[in-house]
Amino acid sequence: MIETLVPVKLVVRVPCAIIEHQGKILAGQRSPFLSFPLKWEFPGGKQEENETDEQTLEREIMEELGVEIHIIDKLPVTIIDQGWREIILVPFVCSLKTENIVLTEHEQIIWLEPDDLQSLDWTDGDLGIIQNYYQYLAVKK
Ligand SMILES: Nc1nc2c([nH]c(=O)n2[C@H]2C[C@H](O)[C@@H](COP(=O)(O)OP(=O)(O)OP(=O)(O)O)O2)c(=O)[nH]1
Prior knowledge:
The protein is α+β, with helices and mostly antiparallel strands. The chain has helices at 53-65, 124-140; strands at residues 10-21, 24-29, 40-41, 69-74, 78-81, 85-96, 108-112. It has one domain: Alpha-Beta Complex (Nucleoside Triphosphate Pyrophosphohydrolase). Its EC number is 3.6.1.55.
């Protein structure tokens, strides 16, 4: 019998946070030494085994920014197909529970009005997230 090898694509689930504070949104610039160097992203990271999306997000935000968050709403997922793996970005609208941000991974962060978000050089997947966030804001009004 001839067996056919079917390549299994790695699927990575990445909860990320659209953090709202005083009418602005936090964007983080990725390190020049990691994948997507110097691109802008919503902070977050890869889910570990047995974590819910919310647990991953709270852990990652504490690791990367040193703050606690309130999770307010979930937005639609955006899928990035990188050929060898698929990244499922799971965005959550959040607010700050504690405010003293200490950066451990990002090159820099910036707080922007929602309308100004598109001025940054985001990862491809994040452009879809921003459009979904605008729709979310429009419905909320
Ligand atoms: N946290 C976050 N990651 C994003 C966003 N957009 C996007 O494409 N990503 C990608 C970058 C990474 O490949 C992955 C998140 O994993 P990570 O935060 O642990 O970053 P990493 O550099 O260690 O990951 P890797 O690419 O080296 O595997 O998702 C986003 O808005 N936020």
